[in-house]
Design brief:
By secondary structure, the protein is mainly α. The protein has helices at residues 2-44, 48-78, 83-114, 119-129, 133-142, 147-155. The protein has 6 helices and no strands. The chain is elongated.
């Protein structure tokens, strides 16, 4: 039995040593992790020279952009547009649009002239609808010589 007590105490002592070693190992690993963090933070610290250099770069960039804007504004102020020039440009644009519309109307008239219609159909429309010969012919041409479609359009 004495052997058991001695062995039991030895086991407890051994067990206590193991616990102490585990705690120490955990403590040491925590210290190592903390050391890594502080080393990283120390490496990432920005020196005052770096800050002043960055600020001077930003200031130089802003000054350059401001100078470019000022130069553009000065160039724009040199350019002057007279009221007469604006009116001339506006009239030119209006004239171009009117010319385009006139060209489109002329093209449509030319296409209508190409459509062949019978004189008898024109006379029928003139008598039935009591309209001018010119209007009857134009309506008939717009409907490609179809008398029924022309009459339907004129009655609606």
């Amino acid at each position: 039995m004495a052997d058991e007590e001695i062995n039991g105490d030895t086991d407890e002592i051994q067990h206590d040593k193991d616990k102490t070693q585990k705690k120490t190992a955990k403590h040491d690993s925590g210290v190592a992790d903390l050391e890594k963090v502080t080393d990283y933070a120390e490496e990432k610290e920005i020196s005052s020279q770096d800050i002043s250099g960055a600020l001077s770069l930003i200031g130089d960039r802003r000054n350059k952009e401001a100078a470019e804007r000022l130069e553009k504004e000065n160039e724009l102020q040199k350019v002057s547009v007279k009221k007469d020039d604006i009116e001339l440009i506006a009239l030119s644009l209006i004239g171009d649009r009117r010319n385009k519309e006139a060209a489109e109307r002329l093209e449509k008239e030319n296409e209508l002239q190409k459509v062949s219609v019978k004189k008898d159909d024109i006379e029928l429309i003139v008598k039935e609808m009591e309209i001018s010969r010119i209007l009857a012919e134009r309506t008939l041409r717009e409907h490609r010589g179809d008398v029924v479609a022309a009459l339907t359009t004129l009655t609606n």
